[in-house]
From TrEMBL:
Residues 17-399 form the Major facilitator superfamily (MFS) profile domain. The chain crosses the membrane at residues 18-39, 106-123, 144-164, 170-190, 218-238, 250-268, 280-297, 303-321, 333-360, 372-392. The keyword DNA-binding does not apply. SUPFAM superfamilies: MFS general substrate transporter (SSF103473). It comes from Deinococcus taklimakanensis. It is found in: Cell membrane. The keyword Ribonucleoprotein does not apply. InterPro entries: MFS (IPR011701), MFS_dom (IPR020846), MFS_trans_sf (IPR036259), MFS_Transporters (IPR050171). It comes from the Bacteria. Gene3D superfamilies: MFS general substrate transporter like domains (1.20.1250.20). Keywords: Cell membrane, Membrane, Transmembrane, Transmembrane helix, Transport. This is MFS transporter.
Length: 406
């Protein structure tokens, strides 16, 4: 007979963990306080072309995702704290520059600077979370930081909208200041974890991650999930607008982020007691795909919101389980490199998903087959789920990792 599983111990966050949670809220809140207003200010207010602003925002995203890979490798050399703090400084300068920009070159330069800042702190932040959290508590810690980010995603646009009557400059500078506050919080609470000097760290760590066949499979298969997850900003938003007009975007995003704030942590606690991490990830991807598939049959906005609720439940599980599995696969001395390399799936999947989502919607309209995008995305979820089962077949169980850590 086997002993029944031991329930996870109560999670009492340390000062470093609380600092990371608070900083994530500030970072996401500051980001969403200003980025949604960029289009409003420069296109609607100043008459710039939408294409020019789209280029600025797209290059910022590309810069951040591209540098995230190297930011993670660098943190294996320096430790995550210096890079996170440097990233906060650059993001502050970038957002402040965007707030005062009056020409396209100055706006582009400021946006790229903000992207460089994000590339410096993204992967090191995940590495820092892993470093200050015990293995059995990591999924809950990643969940709490995700909740804080979603709460920032909800409150950021509200703060930005409230400040907009005072001018875009005021809103932008306020958003920039939140990164200074995050910097101060982390400077006080986050220890400087000095990584062990090993021959395979730094850029060589990226090579190690790329040559790790198990991790490479996992990263590449996850591209399929990020093709799905980006549809909340593309196909789902287009369908919401077609059903309920431009005003549909606020309740759409508000419900998605609000559900994450309310349910992500208790849902994760429920799942981690009953389901192995790898199985939970596969089931969550299938839930996201099923929700997208059901959108083919949504004829009213409330029906669409019901599908979005299922979609959100799936995404709540994917993020913490994905990050937990990355931490479980990575050698302790190469956490930054592995987290950085894992950003490839988000960068590629997000870019491909944005293109494919819009193309499928247009193709469905041309062929008079509106279900085309949703059925295609459902098939993508099935292929991704099968791929994850294959990629994760020999990943160590949580019990094995906990045993090795004791």
């Amino acid at each position: 007979m086997t002993a029944p599983p031991v329930p996870p111990a109560p999670f009492r966050p340390s000062a470093a963990q609380l600092g990371l949670i608070a900083a994530n809220f500030l970072m996401w809140g500051g980001f969403f306080a200003v980025i949604p207003l960029v289009t409003v200010h420069f296109v609607d207010g100043l008459g710039w072309t939408a294409a020019s602003i789209g280029l600025v925002l797209g290059l910022r995203q590309l810069t951040q995702q591209g540098l995230t890979v190297f930011g993670g490798a660098w943190s294996d050399r320096t430790g995550p704290k210096p890079l996170i703090l440097a990233g906060c400084v650059l993001r502050t300068l970038g957002f402040a520059g965007m707030a005062v920009s009056t020409t396209f070159p100055s706006l582009l330069a400021a946006a790229l600077l903000a992207g460089v800042g994000g590339g410096l702190f993204d992967a090191p932040k995940n590495s820092a979370i892993t470093s200050v959290t015990r293995p059995e508590q990591r999924s809950r810690m990643f969940s709490l930081t995700g909740i804080a980010g979603n709460l920032g995603m909800v409150t950021g646009p509200l703060i930005g909208a409230a400040l907009l009557p005072l001018g875009f400059r005021t809103a932008g500078l306020t958003a920039a200041a939140t990164y200074l506050v995050a910097l101060a919080v982390l400077a006080v609470t986050l220890p400087h974890v000095r990584p062990e000097r090993v021959a395979g760290s730094g850029l060589a760590g990226l090579k190690t991650a790329a040559l790790d066949a198990r991790f490479r499979r996992f990263t590449l298969v996850l591209i399929g999930y990020f093709i799905l997850s980006t549809q909340i900003n593309v196909a789902v938003t287009l369908k919401a607008i077609s059903l309920a007009g431009l005003g549909a975007t606020a309740p759409l995003y508000g419900m998605s982020a609000g559900l994450s704030v309310l349910l992500q942590y208790p849902l994760l606690r429920f799942v981690e007691r009953r389901v192995r991490t790898r199985h939970a990830l596969v089931a969550a991807v299938l839930a996201v795909g099923t929700a997208l598939g059901l959108m083919a049959f949504a004829r009213t906005f409330p029906q669409l919101l019901a599908c979005v609720a299922l979609y959100s439940l799936g995404t709540m599980i994917v993020f913490p389980t994905q990050q937990t599995l990355v931490a479980r696969i990575a050698p302790p001395a190469l956490l930054g490199s592995y987290f950085g390399f894992s950003a490839i799936s988000l960068g590629v999947g997000g870019a491909v998903g944005s293109v494919i989502g819009g193309w499928l919607v247009d193709a469905g309209a041309r062929l008079d087959f509106p279900a085309l995008p949703w059925l295609t995305l459902f098939v993508v979820s099935l292929l991704t789920a099968v791929g994850l089962r294959w990629a994760l077949r020999d990943v160590p169980r949580r019990e094995d990792v906990e045993g090795a850590a004791t």
